[in-house]
Design goal:
The chain is of the alpha+beta class. 41% of the residues lie in helices and 15% in strands. The chain is built from 14 helices and 11 strands. It is elongated and about 75 Å long. The relative contact order is 0.09.
């Protein structure tokens, strides 16, 4: 099934289909496109499965399916809204009613650069929250105050800043700081996923500096936080304390070596100084 067939089937039952997320952002930034993720509006789960009986449901809390489109396994989600009802990334009550529109679905997403959609029927970019403008100005901005309801979004914002060499705007720093209480309870794999991506960015030090500005470094990476203010011999380290030295080494290594394990070694090379002078 190609994308046109997929769209026609959705439209035949009065639904609409969009490409969302990183693919749209990368199109605007003229970067290499990522795999496509789709969101559909106006279609119930039962009707979707009737149209696509081969779709594999992978979402636990809400309907997300794997479907082969243009020869690739793509994620297709029903448009949804979320209401905070517990803790962590699973602490939400989800609504996938057929009345949920694409603008409502985009509103629940993390930052404006990821809160855009591409309409398959009109070939237009839907940008209700200023993602294009923020990309042009190299700004990371939370889409709404709901940003802090999923604590890992704080790591994601810092990672996006490192990936694209963007600046996080002040109000988003405040929302990141609110994530601290729940962030320490998040599964390790979610934190490591963001760490791995940050380590592989062009200038990974931005990730850790932004977490420090949001008062989250001490929560997520306490051993790195202990390096702040850890004095070193000026004659050997004119760049400053052990944290500044570590960030300098990390970026220097990242400039010449793409292997994540080598970059991680650079990050950890002086980690003991926080405990032992």
């Amino acid at each position: 099934m190609d994308e046109k067939d997929f769209l026609n089937k959705i439209m035949n039952i009065n639904g609409s289909a969009y490409i969302v997320g990183g693919w749209v952002r990368d199109i605007i930034m003229q970067r290499q496109h990522n795999d496509k993720d789709y969101t559909i509006c106006g279609v119930s789960e039962n009707d979707f499965l009737s149209l696509f009986p081969d779709a594999l449901k992978v979402g636990r809390s809400f309907p997300v399916f794997l479907l082969i489109i243009d020869g690739r396994n793509c994620e297709v989600a029903l448009a949804r809204t979320e209401k905070k009802s517990g803790t962590g990334y699973r602490g939400f009550t989800v609504n996938t009613d057929t009345t949920v529109c694409i603008e409502e679905d985009l509103f629940r997403r993390d930052t404006t650069m990821n809160s855009m959609a591409y309409s398959l029927s009109s070939n237009e970019i839907i940008d209700p929250y200023g993602g294009k403008s923020d990309i042009a100005n190299k700004i990371i901005r939370a889409t709404s105050e709901h940003f802090s309801e999923d604590p890992v979004r704080a790591l994601r914002a810092a990672r996006q800043a490192a990936q694209f060499d963007f600046t996080i705007e002040p109000e988003t720093y405040k929302l990141m700081a609110k994530c601290g209480r729940e962030l320490c309870m998040e599964p390790t794999e979610r934190i490591c996923n963001e760490l791995n991506k940050a380590i592989c960015s062009q200038k990974p030090s931005i990730f850790f500096r932004d977490l420090s500005k949001a008062h989250l470094l001490q929560i997520v990476f306490p051993n790195l936080y202990k390096l702040i203010g850890c004095k070193q011999l000026q004659v050997c380290h004119p760049e400053g304390d052990a944290f500044e030295h570590t960030m300098m080494v990390l970026d220097t290594v990242a400039a010449v070596n793409i292997r994540p394990e080598v970059r991680f070694a650079a990050l950890m090379h002086d980690i003991g100084k926080g405990e032992t002078p």
